[in-house]
Amino acid sequence: WESRPDEGHFLAYADALWELGDQYKDLGELAAARRLWEKEFLPLAAQGEEQGLAPAPRYRATGCGKLGEVCRELGELPEARRLLKESWTRRRALAEAANTHRARREQAEAGLRLGDLCCDEGREDDAGLWFGQAIALARALAKETGTVRDRAVLALACERLGGLYASGRGMPDPRPLLEEALDLRRALAEETGTPADRDSLAAALYKLGTLPGGDPDALCQAHALWARLAEECPAVPRYAKNRDIARSLAAKQSCAP
Prior knowledge:
Blueprint: H1 7-26, H2 30-50, H3 56-73, H4 77-98, H5 101-120, H6 124-145, H7 148-167, H8 175-192, H9 195-209, H10 216-232, H11 237-252
Helix pairs in contact: 1-2, 1-3, 2-3, 3-4, 4-5, 5-6, 5-7, 6-7, 7-8, 8-9, 9-10, 10-11
């Protein structure tokens, strides 16, 4: 990159760093991930911006978001807030300038990350605002594109705000949002059939089933989905764990699967 600072070499180097940073985080090597995003990726993106390389602003917004997420996991919440807010601001500028589906989707995802951080900090009102903005962006986008990814972002946004409403007193009824998320998750699971989408459908059913006065049948459906996933994917212990939790709760609600 330093010997040939053109767009092609920028992308190759940045993508390699991006993949390595994600690997560090997935492995729990948060200090290494922090160093990579802060000392290598973000300086590279800033240099690309200075040279006027077209992809660089998006990569810089990505770097802020990735580093912010690592700082959040490290418990450095003020620094995480600064970085995630910068990422969202950059995403918004990109969406306003280009108005592409990807830019708008990434702005919605940045809003979700800020909402999650606000929940960590106990700032439920602010979290609700960020989740609400993400829902508005994602709903418009899903209506325009109808793609699996955009509908999944909308489902996640509904789950986040619905979960927030379900967690506190004096909050709006979470059911409309969770039911909207469930409808989206069911359609996605039927369309793709992937373990990830079936797991998300089970989780959506579980959320509805565990609301006060919840639906025992939803818990039974969640249990059945996780039971099948546990059989198909024994290398993923989370499926068996969730199956057992759902079975226990369903039994208590007189709907033993």
